[in-house]
Fold this sequence. Notes:
The complex is a heterodimer of chains A (138) and B (178). With 138 residues, chain A is of the alpha+beta class. Chain A is 20% helix and 40% strand.
Amino acid sequence: MALQEKYKQLIDVATSSGVTNLQVREQDNVLYIDGEAPNGEAKDQLWNIYNTIDPDYRAGDLVMNINVAGIAPGSQLKVATKSSNLNIRKGPGTDQPIVGKAAKDEVVTLLSKTNDQWWLIRNANGEEGYVYTQYLAK
Amino acid sequence: MILHLKQLTMKKTIDILLKQLRTAFAIIIISSIMISCGVKDSDLQAAIDQKIQTTPEMTGVSAAVKDGVVTLSGECKDDACKALTENTVKGMKGVKSVINNATVAPPPPAPAPVTINADDALVKGVADATKDFKDVKATVNDGVITLTGEIKRADLKTLMQSLHTLKPKKIDNQLVIK
């Protein structure tokens, strides 16, 4: 319960900003917050609050698994790399061969979600493969 | 003549007896009204309703009063709230007895335990997540991801967001932040 007190502001904002399937559980002195944020801004806001309560995420007492909701197959997603091209790979993993590239800000189509890290997409050239979801934005 | 006098005396005696009987009845009736109407059911009902409304612990409970007997129904959040409601009502003026039919809400189901990914899945996920951060070293042991090495402050959130989706037990961040 102590951790829920420490991260109370985070939990409150998660609730008020419309995070769905929100789960807050404490287990072996680690707080686990799971849920789906309505958009990328809401997710970012939660990460900023987390960084305020625990600067540089040092304490190791929270695992916050918040994804952005409502991204279904068929969605158009924008490549959100810092500057480089996004690798499109044959399978879900960086050990998989690169089969194509998508440029920064290019719009790709989501085909399916393999897991929270890797999604199958098709780029503007019709190349299909797996990309790291961190670099895709709604 | 003598007989007539006797009859008259008897009639008088009967009259007196009847009068006494009437008085006795009146006393019985009046006193019984006074006892039973010490507090009217409707007044008692109103008092109990108000008590329930103004006591947050009693939310969900309702009461019905009949001849000073209060029947509680509805749902309490726990046993303590059920007992509190009963004792509070018992202590109110005019309550003869309390029948506590209030039920206690079942406890909420225990949350499912947190899923922690196995180390081999975590190792693979960590390799993918740290690929673009060449100065970050990561190890996985019994679900715990330990980060050492260096990272730019601007990249820290990106890396953390990625690692937090891997379902680790915890993340021990020992990175030197530049």
